[in-house]
Amino acid sequence: MRQKHKIEILAPAGNVESVTAAVLNGADAVYLGQKALNARQNAENFTDESFRETVRFCHLHGVKVYQTLNTVVFDEEFPLLRKTVQLACEAGVDALIVQDFGVLRAVRRLCPQMRVHASTQMTVHTVQGALLLKELGAKRVVLSRELSKEQIREIAEQTGLEIEVFVHGALCMSVSGQCYMSALIGGRSGNKGSCAGTCRLPFSSVPGQERYDLSLKDNCLAGHFEELCGLGITSLKIEGRMKRPEYVAAAVSAYAALKQGETPDMERLRAVFSRSGFTDGYFTGKTGADMFGYRQKEDVLSATNQVLSNLRETYRKEKPLFPVRMHLSIKAGEPARLSAEAGKGTVMAYGDVPQTAQRRPITLESAKEALEKLGGTVFYLEDLTGKLEEGLMLPRSALNELRREAVTKLEAQQKNSSEITFEDRPFVFTEPRKRTLRGIRARFERARQIPWEWLDRLDWVILPIGEVWRHAKVLLPYSSKIILEPERFMAGTENRVIEQCRALREQGFIHLSASNPAHIQIGRLLSMQVHGSCFLNCTNSMSIAQYEELGLEDMVLSFELTAQKIKRLRGTIPFGFVAYGSLPLMLLKNCPVKSVKGCAACQGKSVLTDRTGAKFRVLCHDREYQELLNSRVLWLCDKKADFAHTDFALLYFTDEAKQSCSEVLDAYFAGGPAKGEFTRGLAYRGIQ
């Protein structure tokens, strides 16, 4: 069928049935994971053999396969990573989707020919972030879901990369790769593919009301298909590896219809899955209350048995996709020959030597009756020609065998599963160097929080760049120990941030904290000294090596690491741990308080209350983005002995008063206990 658009429809596949549903409903590519190291551990996923067979099936139908390796990885998991990548190479997948900088580095060494796609978990949302991944070998970036169409266009036009955009499915409240709620509350980490969906439970900004203020409607950009095709996007991604095959069939068929220039069945799509309807708020730039919704009883009941049954019928039978042209040659004394061509070249099958006909000589019409029987395959006979000498016959069984041989060869040609060379290189790390916990640095939200009497005892002070910009004259004498902290989400503001960094660098502020790839690239662009933030999610020695190669001065490790895992890390650059802080659980681009009360009612002191009564403060950053803070403060100030194998500790202050900051600093140096409720975070219990 002639396509109106060439853009790729990329479908989710959590099991074999979902793959079939995607392929037979018009997907151009599917993304899926093996049993381990992918961001949907709760999906059924694939065994080694079902994985190989799935890749063969997809390639037979002309559909690409992208394998997900989109989680952070611990040092002890690298043997499993090696095995997983080797299987991907042997199966001939078309690309690997990665989150972890260490995994990216490992893949580049194990299989340099393998295409790498940068996962949305890498928090790529600006031009500079995309350019860094391009430099590291990524061929495609999966952009954050929070971008507007103008922001998507800018990245596509200025990077030369393939751009992949989510067009349908669940919207996480937090920016991908920056959510720690499930991990810190229940030990199930989104960065390890085990998110418990905690945000779908009741969280209320209004006291006494049960509300779902962290639950967004599902994304749906079907109404913007023509616009999407004009933005320079390569691939339209459908979310849903944990959803049932009928959902995959409905979503893929809807977007495939749009690609053909046809009208999709949107009512069927809504019936299969929605949360109080759909939203296009991020794409259009119209965020707010209309984007929020949760799964209600009517949403669950709308998918009738008849709707689901009809959807199942769309993928229960193979559909012929590829026209075949055949040419039959029958000549006395020579084996029968059948050539077949289906778009990727011609194959040749050889059969029995024809015999002299006693009654009915073979004709093209009689041969066609056997050769056109292509049911159960992806082919159909479009044309049959032949050169048949008169007076000869060939049994029907011989014709059937010719057809089967030709089909087998066509299928092998169509699969095109070229094995990618796997280079079984060892992972070489520097020997663990002896580290001593001597350093101390503090991060403040406001300059007024800084206890100046402590300044001489702090190695570094981290401050938001906007705060330094506003108080540059006062802070200039301390520029040698101040690290600038850019905005954690810079869609639409990146150029301003670059200019602020450039101006402050000229004044003597030469240190920059990096919490996403864009910050690293900006620091390198401006020849600043870059310090890795905990929000880079550094969890392994390979990542440390990659960040060192990129020129980072040091690294604050992920707070999803246990003390024991940190002890085994290797690397030459200094690294440290977060010893204190009301840790940000989420990075938000759609304020849950503003959507209910408006900004005027907030005054920077809003909270969300969960079903247990726990209160989570909302920290607003100049109305550009928000952070949802944990209800309990992380306290490891009295556990320094367990982190003696690190180089420094970070005290992460957010909305504390100056006096409280001073008291925490006192307690850290004294190794004192916490006051009030606190948590040890994940330092001892770890994550799933």
CATH superfamily of the largest domain: Aldolase class I
| Spatial strand arrangement across the major sheet | 1-2-3-4-5-6-7-10
Largest sheet: 8 strands, parallel, barrel
Output the number of helix runs. Answer: 23
Number of strands: 31
The overall pLDDT average reads 93
CATH topology group of the largest domain:
TIM Barrel
Using only CA atoms, what is the Rg? Answer: 29 Å
First and last CA, distance: 46 Å
Q: What is the level 1 CATH name of the largest domain?
A: Alpha Beta
% residues in beta strands: 15-25%
Helix content: 25-40%
Annotated CATH architecture of the largest domain: Alpha-Beta Barrel
Q: What is the overall shape?
A: elongated
Q: What are the low-pLDDT stretches, counting only 5+ consecutive residues below 50?
A: none
Structural class: alpha/beta
In the residues, how many domains can be counted?
3
Relevant terms:
single chain; about 700 residues; alpha/beta; TIM Barrel; 3 domains; eight-stranded parallel β-barrel; eight-stranded parallel beta barrel; 23 helices; 31 strands; about 20% strand
If you had to describe this structure to a student in words, what would you say it looks like?
The chain contains 23 helices and 31 strands. By secondary structure, it is α/β, with parallel strands linked by helices. The protein folds into three domains: 8-171 and 218-265, TIM Barrel, CATH 3.20.20.70; 322-415; 439-583 and 631-679, Copper homeostasis (CutC) domain (TIM Barrel, Alpha-Beta Barrel), CATH 3.20.20.
